[in-house]
Design goal:
By secondary structure, the protein is α/β, with parallel strands linked by helices. The protein has 19 helices and 12 strands. The chain has a 6-stranded mixed beta sheet. The chain has a 4-stranded antiparallel beta sheet with strand order 2-1-4-5, with no helix packed on it. Strands 7-8 form a two-stranded antiparallel ribbon.
Length: about 575
């Protein structure tokens, strides 16, 4: 776990080392100051030697200035290194998330990933800054001050050792009880972020059903859970300060008692006693800083575990050692394909699928809710891998292809359409970043998106809000289809992607497909039979199995399910589930 985090230091190794060096130099200057104070008292004031006062006073000013300078430099480099590590962590996590398959993504909630990229990384950033600065400064100060105090009086130095042992035991108990609480707190943050994300993304639905009060209550509950967990954790940490105060004032009282006795018998000078007082404060302040480090580490270890879960997650879809980098054609063959989302699942989502689809064919897919229509087409572009059997594209197993090459040749318009903030042209060029404006316009004409784009004031430069909230469902679908067409794929998959489009426009889109991209293999998932009745062949899925395969006319004759749906829809009965 620690190795994973330290790997992100990368180009920030030098600032990390410099922070440690300057922190150590700062401590050296601070440890010298009590020694110089003792010199002023014993060799200057008590001896009546004013020149010694000036000498040691000047050295004290120089040491203080150097300590200040070293402290500033240590803080500067620590901030540079910690923010750099945080930046690298976020970059590495985000890059790794991009490699995930759908199966990997299903393991994490969106809100959980957001929390890990923000709150958890910030915790690690703060912890790293404390480690490279205070983790060096505090122990070094503690050891140096303890050594210097022993040189003055071993007997009185025993008081410091007892205080250190006492405080160490208290801190061990506090950390042991607090760490599990912080681990649970960050899971509560996931719930809070999930509530925010769901509410904001579905705000129109919330307002339409007047559910603001319900959403407020849900958010308050999530916030209350975090509050309770933090109060419990902080209540445990609150014992740290009383323990620290007992150590500080107990040590001062004992030093005063034994020190006064030693001065009266001549075993200790006034300057040395003053020096010991300064060292006791340095030692106990170091202990206080160490306790702060442990508190921060208690919080950050939980965050580190969650970050490592994201960084250590490897995609279950990998490129072969010698991948094929070109797809010959759009033919698709399913050979005894079965598929389950969970490997230990008793019942597969798809069972024993056998299909042989020629390049350029248009294949309609119809089936009830939960019949695995989307699962079937997701296997073609290796968004998931088959559990049994194999899929061939262009005569080769999909697992033999380079993933990027395969997905560039299999263009998918998913059931849930997504647009991104930016102009219409920016969104279209997701299909081909080098596409000219003329190519974008042509793709929009095929997808019948030009009809509404031309009516907009600045046409293709119109800004699309996040998630495409300023265009209708049908407009969003047509833009997504145009974007997919720009890839010039050998296989085009439309996963119920014209459901929000009227039947006339749907017919125009299908006509454009037949005329403009005849060599592209097309898979069209639909609930409306009118959307697929002109397909070369139609697949009827039921409960993850092929119930029927044939043309519209053949299925009307031979397949009861298809015939029932057709009659229901032509008589106004509704969709497949009716």
């Amino acid at each position: 776990m620690l190795k994973t985090i330290l790997a992100q230091v990368k180009q920030y190794k030098l600032p990390s080392v410099l922070s440690i060096v300057f922190a150590a130099a700062e401590v050296v200057m601070e440890v010298i100051l009590p020694l110089l104070t003792a010199g002023i008292i014993d060799e200057g004031i008590n001896a009546g030697n004013l020149s010694k006062v000036y000498l040691y006073g000047g050295l004290m000013i120089l040491a203080a200035l150097l300590s200040l300078t070293f402290g500033i430099l240590a803080g500067k480099f620590a901030a540079q290194a910690s923010t750099g590590v945080a930046c690298n962590l976020r970059d590495s996590m985000y890059e790794n998330i991009q490699t995930y398959s759908f199966a990997n993504i299903d393991k994490f909630s969106t809100a959980g990933l957001v929390t890990r990229l923000t709150t958890d990384v910030t915790n690690v950033q703060n912890a790293y800054q404390m480690i490279i600065r205070i983790c060096v400064r505090a122990p070094f100060t503690l050891v140096s001050a303890l050594v210097m105090s022993m040189l003055v009086s071993v007997k009185i130095s025993m008081i410091f050792i007892v205080a250190i042992i006492f405080l160490g035991c208290i801190l061990a108990v506090i950390i042991r009880t607090t760490m599990p609480l912080f681990d649970r707190v960050f899971h509560r943050y996931d719930d809070l972020n999930a509530s925010i994300q769901e509410n904001v993304s579905a705000i129109r639905v919330v307002k339409a059903f007047v559910r603001e009060e319900h959403e407020n209550t849900k958010f308050e509950k999530a916030a209350e859970n975090i509050y309770k967990m933090f109060v419990k954790a902080e209540s445990n940490l609150a014992f740290n300060n009383p323990a620290m105060m007992i150590s500080v004032y107990g040590s001062i009282l004992l030093i005063s008692w034994f020190g006064a006795k030693m001065i009266t018998v001549g075993d200790l000078t006034t300057g040395e006693l003053t020096q010991l007082f300064q060292y006791v404060m340095s030692i106990l302040m170091s202990l206080m800083m160490i306790s702060m480090i442990f508190v921060m580490l208690s919080m950050s270890i939980a965050s580190i575990r969650r970050i490592c879960e994201v960084l250590d997650e490897t995609s279950d879809l990998a490129n072969p050692k010698h991948p094929i980098c070109s797809v010959e054609n759009g033919s698709v063959v399913f050979e005894n394909v079965s598929f389950s989302y969970q490997k230990d699942s008793q019942k597969p989502v798809l069972s024993n699928i056998n299909l042989d689809i020629r390049a350029g064919e248009t294949i309609g897919i119809i089936g009830g809710t939960g019949s695995a229509k989307s699962s079937l087409v997701n296997l073609i572009s290796r968004l998931y891998d088959v559990t049994e059997g194999r899929i061939l594209i262009g005569g080769r197993d999909v697992k033999e292809y380079d993933l990027e090459v395969l997905r560039n040749q299999v263009s998918v318009v998913l059931q849930k359409n997504e647009l991104f903030s930016g102009s219409i042209l920016d969104n279209l060029r997701w299909g081909d970043e080098n596409a000219t404006e003329e190519e974008c316009i042509q793709a929009c004409q095929w997808a019948c998106a030009d009809e509404f784009i031309e009516k907009m004031p600045i046409k293709y430069n119109t800004y699309i809000e996040q998630g495409g909230s300023n265009v209708s469902g049908g407009q969003k679908q047509r833009l997504c289809i145009a974007r997919a067409l720009l890839k010039k794929p050998k296989i085009l998959i439309l996963d119920d992607s014209t459901s929000a489009v009227d039947t006339a426009t749907d017919a125009k889109i299908r006509k454009a497909f037949a005329e403009e991209i005849p060599d592209t293999t097309k898979f069209i998932i639909a609930q409306r039979i009118s959307s697929i009745q002109d397909a070369d062949r139609i697949i009827v899925l039921e409960d993850g199995k092929v119930n029927g395969l044939g043309t519209h006319a053949e299925l009307l004759e031979s397949n009861e399910i298809y015939r029932a749906v057709y009659e229901g829809q032509t008589k106004g009965g509704g969709d497949f589930d009716h």
